[in-house]
Known about the structure:
By secondary structure, chain A is mainly alpha-helical. Chain A contains 14 helices and three strands.
Amino acid sequence: MILLTILSLPFMLREPIDLPPIVSVExxxxxxxxxxxxxxxxxKIIEKTKKQExxxxxxxxxxxxxxxxxxxDRIPLPNEKKDEKKIVKKKQNPEEVKPEIRxxxxxxxxxxxxxxxxxxxxxKAKEExxxxxxxxxxxxxxxxxxxFATGLTLSEEDALRAQIFGCWSVPLGLPYDENLLxxxxxxxxxxxxxxxxxxxxxxxMNRPGQKFYKVLAESxxxxxxxxxxxxxxxxxxxxxxxIQLNFNPTExxxx
Amino acid sequence: xxxxxxxxxxxxxxxxxxxxLIEVDITRGNLDPLPIAVxxxxxxxxxxxxKDMKIKELGNNISEIIEKNFRSTGLFNPLKKEAFVQKxxxxxxxxxxxxxxxxxxxxxxxGKLLIKxxxxxxxxxxxxxxxxxEMTALxxxxxxxNWRRVAHIIxxxxxxxxxx
Lengths: 255, 164
């Protein structure tokens, strides 16, 4: 049974990772046409439940300008809202919530991550999303790839990078034709201070003929310590509590 | 059997929550000379007074030579002594790293002199202020007239340790 568990885990894990892009592409296509990001979500929920099909379809077919009217209609129907919440609660399974996060814009992504756990706030988040996504529709699509790749947004990553650029005094006189990559793994506190730092290739530091590497690794470590507290995003601690910095001065030394 | 199923499901949920490790590439840095503080070498009270040598000045002279050597390499920026925050004798035992960091120094050199039985013993320590630890420490014993040579050897050792 344990073997089965171990063997089946990777398969179970890989499938959901492949799924999100497909779902998100669908959603964007719909939003492009209708320009109401709220409508596709509603449709999704309806398809699953198959209870309120008629009501939902009406709201979907409504023109974009009618969006404001939708809200007052929905409020007097408490039953409907409750049902919706329950459905969303079922979706709390992280596999299914992720695509939702990814298709959202960077700006309110933080908010959504926080409110994810609270089913009651999901509706509110969706409304905000609908308003914001209208404005930043193009940005959302271009930056989507980046949030997939790292978990930090481009601007957050740049802020961190720029901060460390300033702190890192690169030792000069390094051999530029050797591999100079220093990888440092950090464990951070919530305020950006360093709890633990570790050089990943530390065995190379004490090898004969690799003195320069030791110097370089020490300079990188010094940079990180001098930069404390690091400029990390205020939310999403789970994502960046462990972070790896790859110091590579090769490009710079070649000029 | 039910327990196994439970563990299996738990694994599934817990593993899904973990995020991929964020990697940030740092390809640029500061090419300014490394700020270094060279504290004057302090004279041990046990030292005997030699006839033709002012031992109190010797500590300053050695540190000045080290400083000049560093400046001429272009890789280091020795800080002004007026900014130093700790007396040389205390700093040599254990520097207050936080205070030295305040004057933006990244490395600190401290040392001690001792003349006994017509022999000069020069001891130095190089501290990494960011990591709050000693990087290297050496002691040289020679005739007192050889002090200039010792100063250059110390410069050389520090240079080697800091540049690789």
